[in-house]
Design a protein that fits this description.
Order of helices and strands: HHEHEHEHEHEEHEHEHHHHEHHEEH
Strand order of the largest sheet: 4-6-5-10-11-9-7-8
Number of helices: 15
Radius of gyration: 21 Å
CATH superfamily of one domain: Amidase signature (AS) domain
Distance between the termini: 23 Å
CATH topology of one domain: Amidase signature (AS) enzymes
Number of strands: 11
Strand content: 5-15%
Structural class: alpha/beta
Largest sheet: 8 strands, mixed
Length: 494
Amino acid sequence: MSSDLTQLGVKAIRDGVADGSFTAREVAEVFNANVAAAAALNAFIVTTPDHALDAADRVDADRAAGRPLGSLAGVPIGMKDLFATKGVQTTAASHILEGFIPEYESTVSQNLWNAGAGMLGKLNLDQFAMGSSNETSYFGNVISPWRKTGSNAALAPGGSSGGSSTAVSARLVPAATGTDTGGSIRQPAAFTGITGIKPTYGRCSRWGIVAFASSLDQAGPMARDVTDCAIMLGAMAGFDPKDATSLDLPVPDWAGSLNADMRGKKVGIPREYRMDGTDPEILKSWDDGIAWLKDAGAEVVDISLPHTKYALPAYYIIAPAEASSNLARYDGVRYGLRDLPEGAGLQDMYAATRADGFGDEVKRRVIIGTYVLSAGFYDAYYNQAQRVRTLISQDFENAFTECDIILAPTTPTAAFALGDKSDDPLAMYLNDVFAVPASLAGLPAMSVPCGVNKDGLPLGLQIVGKAFDEQGVLNAGLAIEGRAGFIAKPEKWW
């Protein structure tokens, strides 16, 4: 039994278990050991080694008995602590939910268990998925496994799925679930040199996922490469009658249909994304991506997404408005934290519980959201932002009459040091500038690693597709992946 098993991805583990090269239990044991040895990264809020071993034993028993194996049989994964897991604490990285143990399983996690996956633990994140650096968690910062060349400064792993991105990049898990509201799968994937896809809104059920902004939240996989993401997304996705926004569509065999041949495809390059202040190395990586897709046979066309500049302000009105509504349920009455000062009435309990339970960034967004939904400002802000959202969606519809997919950078910079932007919320929000438009339009979008910068840090390219065309996005990602030849991984320091 070799620790080399932790260098394998989803497909290699699944296929190796199926053909008897190693057992699922051997895989679970070495990943459990890696998780236990990596406490310095703070990627996990809770570890569940027994869950991983039990799932592995079931897979080994099924194989021994000749029973059919699922698409993720023998693959232990990390679960972002936004997904409700029956009998395992689920906190959304907030004090207000500390100690909450659900009596039910989220649809996405149940789908993964049904496919044969096991759980190594619950991954840390920005509190209620609100953040771009994983510095807002009640359970402390997640630290990226990457370091700048010649520096020991702790770097942000991206957010909100920072525990997921760190765990995959550091080989603590072969894959992990993430959620993406305005870039929270794609941005951390770019920061840590891994691959992540946000599917079309509604592809994955939101039932059992702690809500941030209901019209934007979408679950997706984070893994080492495009193939692994395609396999995992196939297991996660599917219609769910318990989620009113779930798409009642069959789940395609994305992994089986992967094809890096881009002949006959047009790739749109949005001129509005060449923004002032973007890191020159990011722009060079974009030019590299264009050349790679041309090499794969694609035709490159210039397109316009004229309302791009309004996407970020619209997002930071709509998302906090929905958050203020969703987070009203955390009041100390039913579950989670209850702060009851002596002699307090009901109103005092609400105020004390929420003051103590929510972190600063959550409070900031709840206050913004409550403000924009208030009687005097609803039309001026919230309705206006929804109109802008419609215009952004129309921009994409118009662009897709001229092209099949869109290529852009994932982030305006490489990973920054922890603490660099935490005093300036607006600077932090700008991390999402390239990711937010696709979220507002509900479109599938993924980040694939495309190289490293002069400091030795990973950079990511973003591919945006038409609604329901995850296949087109994955295929373009595969074309870039094959030409980028990205093999960099963090040097172990933890």
